[in-house]
Every structure is written in structure tokens, then in C-alpha cells.
Amino acid sequence: MSIIASSPDDDRIQIVDIDVSTLRPGDILALTENSLVKLYSRATVRTAMTDGVTMAADEANISSSDDRFIWAHAAAMTLLDNPSANWATVRNAHYAPGPAPTDDDDPQYTRDQVSQAVNNGIDLAAKHERRTVADDLDNLIVNAALTLLDDPDADFHKVATENYDECPSVIRSWL
User: Fold this and answer.
1) What is the 3-state secondary structure (H, E, C) of 7-35?
2) Alpha-carbon distance 18 to 9, whole Å?
3) Which of the chain's termini has less CB crowding within 10 Å, N or C?
4) pLDDT per residue as tens digits for the range 32-55
């Protein structure tokens, strides 16, 4: 479907192609310089990240309260708001007394911003908490969270088939 978008700053009119099958009622779109993008709220990102961690933990038969999951989640959410945060900032945010940043419903993050925060958060947590690089389980967290961001009803089978060239049972054997 093509959408005609005009810029309020000048007289330019731009035709943007978007796959409407990926849109849900209430989705917010923003016009960037080159295209129309969907925006996600912090609450939506937190839910997708939490559900992605839970899915990965369940498939690996590990408690979702394991440090590897706690720190990956904390790092991703910290980097969402502060993409250049270092590990000390992540730890301080996680241990900070008082309320965590509010999960408002104001859509403000693009999928690219969320993807960068999740990927970098997973890498940062693996490096500092486990003294290693991201592994297959970490990659599943990323793929699950990003799939669930676009499709909150996705299950492991959908995550596996959309993100890997292997069947779900093979993916499960890597964990």
C-alpha cells in the first residue's frame, strides 16, 4: 500500500510504501527523511524484551532469573534510553534505589533503535558478566525479542523459522 505524506515544513510530497499487514490498531507511524517508520513505546519494548528472555530461558530449560538474563535485559533497557552507556551506567541503573524509568505509552523508538539497544545490550552483558562473547542463547534472546516486538503473539516456532535456516528442534539443540 502506498501512503502519500506531505512535509509541513515545505511543499514536498512523498509517496511511501509500507506493508500494512504488519500494522496493528493504534500503531503510531513517523515520517523520517526517507520513509515512514513505526514507533514503539518503552512499555512495548520492555514487554517484548521480557517475553523474549522468558522464551529463550524456557527453551534452554534455565530459570529466567539467571544472571545472564537479568543483565541482558537491564543492559538492553539502559541502552534504549542511553545508547552510549557503559557497563558502569548499566549497573548503576539496575541497582539504583527508587523507581525505574517509567514505561510510558508514548511511542518514541524506531525498530532500528530497539534492535541496536537489544543487540548491544546482549553483547555488553555477555562481555562483562560472563567474560565472553554472545552465544547461541544470547542470539535467541535478540531474535525472540525483536520478533515479539513486531508480533506479540509469536511463539518459538515462529521465531525459529523466521530467523534461522534450521528447524526449531535444531535451534533448541544449540541451547
Assistant:
1) CCCCCCEEEEECCHHHCCCCCEEEECCCC
2) 23
3) N
4) 556 678 899 999 999 999 999 999
The pLDDT tens digits of the residues spanning 152-161 come to 999 999 999 9
Query: What is the SS3 assignment for 66?
Result: coil
Partners of residue 155 on adjacent β-strands: none
d(CA 137, CA 153): 21
Grid cell, residue 136, equals 547461541
What is the grid cell recorded at 156?
518459538
DSSP 3-state of 136: helix
